[in-house]
Structures are given as C-alpha cells and as structure tokens.
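Can't attach files on this board, so I'm pasting raw text. These are the components:
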Amino acid sequence: MFQEVGTTVEGDLIINVGPQHPATHGVLHLVITLNGETIKNIEPHLGYIHRSIEKMCESLTYRQFIYVTSRMDYLSAHINNHACALCVEKGLQLEIPPRAQVIRVLMDELTRIASHELWWGAMAMDLGAFTPFFHAFRERETINDIMEETCGARLTMNYMVPGGVMHDLHPNFQKRVKDFMLLYKKKIHEYDELVTGNIIFQNRMKGVGYLSAEDAISYGCTGPVARGSGVSSDIRKLYPYEIYDKLEFDEVLETGCDSFARYMIRIREMQQSIRIIEQLIDNIPEGDFQAKTKAVLKLPKGEFYSRVETARGELGVYIVSEGGTTPYRIKFRSPGFSNLSALNHIAKGGKIGDLIASMGTLDLVIPDIDR
Amino acid sequence: MTTEELKIKITELLPAATFEEGGEWLNINVEPADWLSFAQQLRKDDSLLFDFLFCLTCIDWKTHLTMVYHLRSTKYLHNIVVKSKLDRTKPEIETVCHIWRTAEFHEREVYEMFGVNFLNHPDQRLLILPDGWEGKNPMRKDFEDPINMIRL
Amino acid sequence: MTDIKNNHTDSQIPPSGDGGKAPFPGIVHDTPGGGIVLSKLDDVINWARSNSLWPLTFATSCCGIEMMSVAGAKYDFSRFGFEVARATPRQADVIIIAGTIVNKMAPVLKRLYDQMADPKYVIAMGACAISGGPFFYNTYSVVKGADHVIPVDVYIAGCPPRPEALLHALISLQEKIKSGLTREQLKTGKEYL
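---
Top answer:
Structure tokens for the assembled complex are below.
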C-alpha cells in the first residue's frame, strides 16, 4: 500500500503511525523510516477523509455550499463560512451593514479562542499531561453555550450568509460574553502556571522542530507556524477585511523558530482575541443584520478570491463562475495542506517524541487537508 | 508596486505574455514552454520578489485545461495571478518545486485530479486518492462514476 | 435520564439511596445474617459487561470533537463505565464510529473491527456514519453508511449529535446488552454471548 521513498539501507525500520492513532488529531497516516530511534524520512499519506467537497460544491448553489465548508476545518467553523460568504459577496459586490460586520468579527474571535483552547488541551494530552484537557474543555463548553444560544448549534453553526448573518444576536449575548471575559482573563494565567512554566514541558519543546524563515516562506506556511519563525503573515493585518483595520490589536511574532515559539504565539493570540472582543462588545451598532439579497444568487462571469485568517493560517476560497446559479469550479486553499508539507523538513533527524511535539504545534486538522 | 507598474515590468521580462482584463489582481497568460524561466525571474528579480506561492490549481474548460498560480511577495505585498493554457489530450508543464517548495504537494494533487504531467517532478504519484485511481482524474468535467456517485 | 430496568427479573432489593434505579439483576431473599440472591448467570454476565464498556478512540471528523466533549468534565461518560478509552482495538469493547467513512478508510475500519475481541459492539454516530450524511449526493469517495462495512448496533442522528444524544445512545446500548438484542447476540443465538 505504500512505496518506499528515499534511500533505505540495511537495518532501517519502517513503521506506520496512524491512520487510527490518538495523537494524530484525525486520520493521518505517516510512514516513518527510522535508523535506530532517529527519524530519517517521513512520508504523509493523505486521503483517509477525502470527501470530494470540491466536486460536490459544483452542484450546490451559492447559498448551499457555504455550510459544507464548516465541516472542513470544524474547529474554526465560523471563520470558514465567513471566507465563503466574503467570496460570494465580492462577486455580487454587496455592501454589508456595520452591525453584521461587528457580529461576524465577534463570532470569529470567539471561535479562535475555542479552537486554540482545544489545541492546547489536545497537545498537552499528546505529551502525556492529561489534566489540561479538562481545563480546556471547561472553557470551550462556555463558549459553545454562548454560541448555541444565538446560532442554534455547538460545533457546525451555520450562521453566516452572503450579506450578513442569519439571525440577530440573542439578548443575553452581551452579558454572557462580558461575564466570560472577566472569568477567562483569570483562567488564562492558570495555563501558564500549569503547562508553560513546567520544566519537563519546556525541555520537550525548546530547540525541537526548527523551521527557518526562508523555509517557512518556501513551504507556503501561514498562521502561527510562519509567525513562529518571524514571518509576518497575519491576513487581518496585511490585507484587512471587515472592520479589522479599525481595531487595535498586535500581530504576535516570535523569532525562536522552534516548537516553543509556535506554542507561545497561540497563547498570546488568545490574549489578543480577548482584546478585540473587549473593544467590540460594548459598541455593537444598531441596524440590519443582513443586507437585502435575492433568493437565488447568480454570480457574474469571472473569478473571485477571498482570504481570511483562521486559527490555523490563511484560508483562501477561489470561485470560478460562468454566470449560473452553481459555481463552475471552487478551490479551497487550506492552511493545513501547506503546513503539513513542512513536516518532513521539521522532524528529520529527531526522535519520535520530538515528532509528536512538532506535530502538535503545527495544529493540523486532517479534514482541512484532504477536503 | 501597482498593477500598471507590474504590467510594464512583466512585459519587459517576457514580451510574449498577454494580460486579461477584469479581476482584482493582474492576470497574466503565459505559454507552458516559457513558464519555468518566467517563474525563476519572478522569484529572483529585486523589484518583484514573488516568494510566496499561495494557490496552485487547475480549471477544466471543456476544450482545454488552464493552470492557475497565485503569487505574492512578502516584502512588497503585491499579488499576481499567472495562467497557462494546456492542451487537453496531452497536458504537460514544467514543475516549480525547486523554486517554491510548497508546489510539491499541490502539483501532486493536480496530477491526480486532472491528469496534468509535471516534467521533472521529484515524486509524482497519488496523494489523496486511494490506490488504483491513476488515470481516472475525478475533477475533470467528463468524469463518470455510476457506482459511487449518486446524482441528485 | 432513562431508567435502567432489567427486563427479565424483578428486583426486590430494599429501597436504597438511588431508589432502586440500577438494580443488580436477581431476586433477593432475606435470611438471617445476610441475604441470598437468585439470578440467571446470563443476566449477571450481561449486567457486568454493559456497565464497563471501553470505547476505542476512533474519530475521523467533526463528530470526534463531540465525542471528546463527552469525555470532558461537563458531560462525563466515565460515570457510565466508559472511563478508559483505549487506543488499541485488542483491549476495546465498543467502537464509536464518529465521522465520515470514505473508500480509502473502509478497509482500515474493517481491520480494526476484526482485531477487536468478542463480545464487541458498534455505535454509528452522526449522519455521516449512518448514511453518508451531507456527502451523499455527487461524491465519488464516500461510503454511504458505515453499516456497509461493519454491523451496527446503535445509530445516533445529528450533525453533529449533541453530547446528550451520545449519552442516551450509550445507555440504550447498555439496555440492549442486558436484554440480549445486540447484533452479536442475535447472530449467535445466545442471549449472554
């Protein structure tokens, strides 16, 4: 079922990690060539969750295909839907009312916090620490409850439509988010005490998984993986969309280039998201939550590309339209696909324990890669 | 650089390139034979410095295939789109793995979905599809699979 | 929460703190110095099996996150006996298929199922595992339902199902085992397997 790639000499051991494995965060099959305990070559085998989404979207209308994408990178489901809605609006040249823009940004940032929480819990579990998992899920459950009151679902909330959002905010939303922010600012210090300052954790993460800046650019890495090597790549700052250009937040950069730098970036990103939410939660403008659109959407002939910053990196949606009610070709540029191609380069020469630490900091969600 | 300045610079580098109107960024059409040298110039030229390839895909217009490359520069933050028309019966183009390492996986995906042969690719084989799907090219418009695909 | 009643025998255990809601299967006869419980061995084995099912960590896509939520502290499935989630199929009892099964993954799923030791049970979680879900039409690579590959005992509807739905399904599986109606038990014709 697999071919050997690279030179194998007598005494090399080839092992399979996955597809069913507790530490691969999904169905990823890695074929690792080992010399003793040192990794010589890693070859990822993808396709164990390839659901042919791009082919399927060619037969769905512009209102329907948005909700299939929330199953692609399900941890930042709102942000995926946001990218698709932005692309369709670019084609229709719609103006989005300010209330809808603020609601979209609020939901995006809450999703980002929830996604980083789950990443943190799962990564600590991979390294052997089982307690942070429960702390992370405690926070995540609060965010899910807040979103469920407004959007109706916990994980795949189909809330964004081309033109705005589907329904208005629940009256309790503001109060619940403010209470959550007060609580969360205290809890986030717990994470530093529990995991970040732990000497075993630091020994496992510092100096492991080195990725230089030129390699990060060449491999097409985006998101915290590139920012951990000092490459500025936050789409919210470089090519701002919605109201991000009016908000005050920092782009978090680190120059460590190793796993610990990528870890610290995500922790700091959670703090920046809190900053954004606090700026917005008291200033939600009144007005419409959805622009007026026709029931059946038809994009004009042409090509449209929109990109957003998900919790994993840059997601791009490329729609080629021939003027009908369904797209002619859709391509999703997923962040995990490019981040995964750097895995062989990062983990070569290390041990398997280092591979698990590096893979944890890459934050891969496999359905996002296979589409 | 703005779109106009980019247009002038590109015409200097490759006089045979044609431009498409409309679209958010500059769309350039090149011949498949010119692509490798043009790509190297885009990467190395000091005023262009396109070092980030962020999207590589293929579109099946029923008479021909088109390769689409989206590039951007991390220093100057400008974006362009390069397209190349391929013959449907024998689609071939040079690989750019040596210029942008991210192209390795993207080109493997285009190879299995559309059947485009990338010359000098270090490792051209199936990435996402299971064994036995060589040559089936599911993303082409004339792909029929009466067993698996249930039509609505 | 559903009451867990045993279909076969009445339990006449004196009322305890939980109101006799989860009775040990058997009739208790009080004798001086203790009591005697009379029961069928099948019932006792089924009762023991159903109360300590160990799931296999098998999550392919989004439903896996809801399964992890159920393992978390808010909706806790270790109070029903599912405490130890084993990574190896040799030590697991129940496989919760959380996520879409595609053509490339189907032989892997079959192999995992074959590696599990009897008695084994299967729960299909989410619309994708029941019938292909949102990926039913116009896809060339999705298996339209996990029961094309392995026999399924309990189906849970939802996309993704709420954690409470998964807990209800786990309790239904426990009741099914106690009443002798799971696939394995019917196939072999024995109530206790």
